[in-house]
Design brief:
9 helices, 33% strand, alpha+beta, 6-stranded mixed β-sheet, binds adenosine-5'-triphosphate, 14-stranded antiparallel β-sheet
Length: 433
């Protein structure tokens, strides 16, 4: 004999002597069949000292459904139907390395429960996702096969796929639908479309969301520029497929120079990655207060931009020295770091945020304001504009001050080189949100 009640935002289910209490906010969905209702919910798993955020998907079967749970009823969405090729990509190197556990604890039981057939791909090195994108996703998109790609990664997985699609001249008949299950460090895109961390928001979006095209920018570099690989130890051609000899990278999140690019580059080592999102703050600290006692660097170069207000005119900034220069298509670079408040994700709007050299304390204060709801853009020291294009002509002797970040990838621009950023008109990928 079992009983079920909803009390104080919890589902209380008793069967024999055992009572299970589930917070309503931990319930992913209810899937019903003619005779029963399956409630899928998350609960803590393992020792919280090892991983306080680890959760596992579980199921209870009810004969009758309390009315409070009726809105949680869900059926298999069209992007998981039998005609769709469903792929799960586990980026084992993302964030602090928990993607595989998230797959086993949440994604696998969820897809099995829905009876969805899918292929699983686990990364072995940085080439796994680009290779998969070239040989499977692009090929199937060209043949018009609907695809849904569930990405257990940070922004890197999305960007790797994007780069393959936009670099190729292959026509895309049916854009794949990407679903983000945030497992990275910054998770800028996931945070920007409102996904909190953990598998529940991602799976809820997979069930209830719908696809929108992902807006993209293209960053063209002067011909001598090279991509940084192997934790900064190697420089390789920008087009790693060596198919086109192009010097363009594509991104959906951020293009930056100055403090942001330097801290992303410096913190992309196995040693720093262990610290999760703290790695960005640690690297920022080292750049603002160098341990050799040197003053904080003044990044020098000419910035020219075209604003959305007057797209026919290019406008050169008077200032030649900069500390922070970021162009972005998303509002958040981390869950709490609201770099461009008011920017609607997936709208195609591109924002430019810049400030010049200032004391490390003042720069820290601006960063703190960004964590406090994006208040930095209200300061008179910060430029905040809607842009269509942006060009930087670098005037730096040392290569490390000519590093540009494109969605986490780092390019070292040649001496006296440049980068030019523009909105990409093509739309080859969808994001479920
Ligand atoms: N097994 C692996 N060995 C080496 N590199 C890997 C492996 N798995 C993934 N990678 C690479 O590591 C990078 C991880 O990027 P990802 O964006 O997923 O995580 P992140 O950098 O921690 O998060 P974010 O980009 O959101 O800050 C990707 O470039 C990916 O190709």
């Amino acid at each position: 004999m079992s009983t079920v009640n909803v009390v104080d935002n919890t589902l209380q289910y008793s069967h024999g002597d055992v009572t299970t209490v589930i917070k309503l906010e931990d319930i992913l969905c209810v899937s019903s069949n003619p005779s029963s209702h399956n409630v899928l919910f998350f609960c803590a798993e393992g020792d919280p000292k090892d991983d306080p955020e680890r959760v596992r998907l579980k199921k209870i079967e009810l004969e009758s459904l309390p009315t409070e749970l009726v809105p949680l009823k869900a059926s298999v969405p069209s992007h998981l139907n039998k005609e769709t090729a469903v792929h799960v990509v586990i980026s084992t190197g993302s964030g602090t390395g928990k993607a595989k556990t998230v797959y086993q604890d949440a994604i696998q039981p969820f897809l099995t429960h829905l009876g969805v057939e899918y292929s699983v791909h686990e990364t072995e090195d940085p080439e796994t996702i680009p290779h998969l994108a070239r040989t499977h996703f692009l090929e199937q998109a060209h043949r018009g096969i609907p695809q849904t790609v569930i990405l257990l990664s940070g922004d890197g997985g999305l960007v790797d796929i994007l780069d393959v699609f936009y670099r190729s001249n292959t026509t895309v008949k049916v854009p794949p639908n990407l679903v983000l299950i945030p497992c990275g460090t910054g998770n800028a895109m996931a945070s920007s479309i409102g996904l909190r961390s953990g598998p529940l928001p991602g799976l809820s979006t997979l069930l209830r969301g719908s696809p929108s095209p992902v807006p993209v920018f293209a960053a063209e570099f002067s011909p001598g520029s090279q991509l940084v690989a192997d934790e900064g130890r190697l420089l390789v051609p920008i087009d790693q497929s060596n198919e086109t000899m192009s010097h363009t990278l594509w991104g959906a999140v951020v293009a930056s120079w100055g403090l942001h690019a330097a801290l992303v580059a410096d913190s992309d080592t196995a040693e720093y990655r262990k610290f999760g999102v703290e790695r960005f703050k640690m690297a920022a600290n080292e750049l603002l207060y160098p341990s050799d006692g040197a003053p904080c660097h003044r990044f020098t170069g000419k910035i020219t931009m075209t604003t959305s207000e007057s797209p026919e005119q290019t406008h050169q900034l008077e200032e030649l020295e900069h500390m922070y220069a970021v162009a972005t298509l998303v509002p958040r670079l981390e869950k709490e770091f609201l770099i461009s408040p008011g920017l609607e994700p997936l709208s195609g709007q591109m924002k430019f945020i810049r400030f010049g050299p200032m004391s490390p304390e003042d720069a820290m204060q601006l960063m703190t304001l960004a964590y406090q709801g994006g208040q930095h853009v209200q300061q008179s020291t910060v430029t905040y504009a809607d842009i269509e294009r942006l060009r930087i002509d670098f005037q730096e002797d040392e290569a490390r001050w000519r590093r540009v970040c494109i969605d986490g990838k780092i390019v070292v621009v040649e001496k006296d080189g440049w980068v030019e950023l523009r909105k990409e008109p093509r739309r080859s990928l969808n994001l479920i949100h």
